[in-house]
Amino acid sequence: MDTLISLADGFAIALTWQNLLLALLGCFLGTIMGALPGLGPSNGVAILIPLAFTLGLGATPSLILLTSVYYGAMYGGRISSILLNIPGDEPAMMTCLDGHPMAKNGMAGQALSLSGIASFVGAFFATWGLIFLAPQLVKIALLFGPAEYFALFALAFMTLGGVSSTNQAKSAFAAALGLGLAMIGVDTQTGVPRFTFGEVHLYDGLDFLVAIVGLFALSEVFIFLEHRHGDANGSADKIQVGRLTPPLSMLKQTTPTMIRSTALGFVAGVLPGAGASLGSFISYAFEKRLVDSEGKTFGKGDPRGVAAPEAGNNAAAGGALVPMLALGVPGSGTTAVLLAVLLSLNITPGPLLFSQNPDVVWGLIAALFIANIMLLAMNIPMIGLFTRVLMVPPRILMPIVAMVSFVGIYGISGSSFDLLVMIGFGVMGWVLRKLDVPLVPIILGTLLGNSMENNLRRAISIDNGDWMTLIDSPLSITLWLIAIIGFILPLIIGRKVKTKMHSSRDEEGAISD
Amino acid sequence: MIIKATRLTLAAALLGASTFGAFADGFTLENPECIAPANPGGGWDFTCRQVGKSMQDLGLLDKTLQVVNLAGGGGGVAFAEVVNKRSDDDNLIVAASSATATRLAQGAFPGNTMDQVRWLASVGADYGVIAVAADSDIADLPALLEMIKTDSTSVSVAGGSAVGGWDHLKVLIAADAYGVEDVRTVKYIAFDGGGEAVTQLLAGSVQAFTGDLSEAKGFVDSGDIRVIAVLAPERLAGEFADFPTAREQGVDAIGANWRGFYAPGDMSDEAYDTWVSKIGALYASDEWKNIMTNNGLAPLDLQGPEFEAFVADNVAQIQKISKEIGILR
């Protein structure tokens, strides 16, 4: 009951004209930033910090503005995934897999509105989770030592096979490539530079935003250039928008998916360092295993393949606020930025935040609800507008994509070296698409590779080189069992259905088409 | 749409209003800019943004201090950019800390040295702490160091910097002062930032934590962790007065993470003096004192040549330790 009273107080703080306007502004800007390839939630929030300070906003209004941007960007990322097959930010990567095929099947409007609803469900229930479970969830985070983290990351990679490709070997190759790329940079455990060739820009490793924009956006441009000699605006590329709202049967079909994915995504978000990308990835992988173990519909425009990652990543976004508020440990890049904002507003997040600054915490939580409802209300009518993008002929769209990619990356890092790296990734993406190698595992490898390696080495050095430490807690044993089952099961099932499916699968493979 | 247009006009008006006003000093800063050599969310980012905000609040700057995040190479990318491309920019300052000095000392910025830039002023220092979980058996610093001395494999110390980084060096300084023969055997586990390291201390994965007072503060207040030593010359003021220093426990170890700024090497003397006086005025203000108290920052009041000499000493000291422990040959 106390919780509900505090929440009501929070709404009393948040529901002023100024705060509502700030939330609206934040949602609008966040959606646009999320949709632009390159600009993600963490940059979006960082860009608006000066605005919050310049306007002289207090703690609660600043947080309302910035968390609206955060949630808005999580919503917006899906738009370019579905329409262009270019993820707007890292967590939206998984939405490409089924979202873009849906758009190609003439269901772009439905994919956008369904993903909007899934985002709402994920974020809405995650916010309730944040309210009621925050203290308990912190205890879950404390169960995870380095060994358990390593098992969790291993689980993510072992269930990778077949997620984005029907060819396990190509997925494994792509993941290995990604892990290899993650090794570039100064090794944080020993301070020794690896594969940097004395180039100071490589000391911090490759920025995965640069990798994503290069692999997805630029390679799309290269593919277009290659086909340019033919009919660039040919009828094959014409995409029908279709109806704008999903039929009730589709909502009914995806409801269990959304619920499962929300729970999974939320837990992934709570773990510091795992974040929204892992949330959307695990949600998608799990859902595919559960409802489509034979690989018949996922990857070809299954609405459940759109609902799962969107509910998952938005739930993870809410979950990531738990360790940030309750421990002062950011669960993702964006929450790290929010943490810095809190600190510069003289608020110390941590175990005592809820008792010392209740107005800030509950105002923030109320703002999350308000932002979430605004985003749903704003996104559904705007779908018609978004889908116009599909009407733009590729000869106009592609140069814009290229321009946005370059401006976006240069705007973030201010370094021309990153532009060269991005072009390198673009060429690599083009070659890999030709070879039908899926691109998603590469990003996952670069994204998670360092954390996975560091946690392995931390676990081993804490136990003085004893490898058995990896399986000495019930939690890590459970994680390993799930990982092994997830790895072996598709091999057995896959063999059974392989002959059946063989002919229809040949043209599948890379996420392009 | 009407609401949106109104709002944008409002925002534009507010932004525009801040560009008017008079300048106090002889030199005029056109577009003051602060480079935070890391991604948003870290200590350097905090230094830039907090200083920028406070300067504007106090009227020391008429325009917003533009914060640019130029991450890479642990500050090396920003250092190289300032030295190679913007060495005569009068409007630019860059956030720095002990981590910058550590990397300069260990030659981790290839081809760059500390005399290629001008050191402006400090804005405070974060004293190092060594802490254990609240329910730990380890009573005080000598007890912890004795355990390391007898069997270094029995204690894992977690910190937020890489091996050879400042958090690591702090615990080595203490071990060295206690008389641990080969400090290289001290088991140090590197995490991504002090927050993660503290979490692992609470989770029981490691036995001790080395970091800055500001990183540990929230957990000390809540009673989750216990500070067994602060690496300051004497006890700190206010709410931190309860923490024993390493020195009073017979371990002569001091480690402070200073925070401050440097400027391009060819900055004009007028601009340099203007920046030094502005940061000095900020440091002297009551508002900044409050921020220091709230964030566990201890006094370190150095400007201009004094600060330059301090950084030089710091670099030399770190070089000496790094050679002793074999990180630097």
UniProtKB/TrEMBL annotation, chain A:
The keyword Transmembrane helix applies. Keywords: Membrane, Transmembrane, Transmembrane helix. Coiled coil: none annotated. This is Putative tricarboxylic transport membrane protein. The chain crosses the membrane at residues 20-39, 45-71, 111-134, 140-160, 172-188, 208-225, 263-286, 324-348, 360-384, 396-423, 473-493. It comes from Celeribacter halophilus. Residues 20-444 form the DUF112 domain. InterPro entries: DUF112_TM. It comes from the Bacteria.
TrEMBL record, chain B:
Keywords: Signal. CDD domains: PBP2_Bug_TTT. Residues 1-24 form the signal peptide. Pfam families: TctC. InterPro entries: BUG, Bug_dom1. Belongs to the UPF0065 (bug) family. This is Putative tricarboxylic transport membrane protein. The lineage of its organism: Bacteria, Pseudomonadati, Pseudomonadota, Alphaproteobacteria, Rhodobacterales.
